[in-house]
Amino acid sequence: MTVVGFLTVAPAQESMSGEIAKAVEALEGFDVSYEVTGMGTVIEAEDSATLFDAASAAHEAVDSNRVVTSLKIDDKRGTEQTARGKVESVEKHLGREGRGD
Description:
Elements: E1 3-11, H1 17-26, E2 32-36, E3 41-45, H2 48-61, E4 67-74, H3 83-94
Antiparallel strand pairs: 1-3, 1-4, 2-3
Helix pairs in contact: 1-2
Protein name: MTH1187 family thiamine-binding protein
GO cellular component, one term: cytosol
Domain Thiamine-binding protein: 7-91
């Protein structure tokens, strides 16, 4: 089983990218795959416990007086899924890539 999550960790300050990089770096300590996007990070793990632990570490890695973290999880039990597979399913229905210019 693969659990797919979308994680956003944001320090409440003007310049965020350096602190976000610390959060992303914290994911390296876990058995997860991830992809950073412009609005958050897609994470895949074998189970929800690993995903929660990785998200917690990312949250704690940010050095700010205030950190806002959101985690959205798709735990489709009994079925193998990947974030890329979910995109491919939508693209199949579109008949094209799921992006525009």
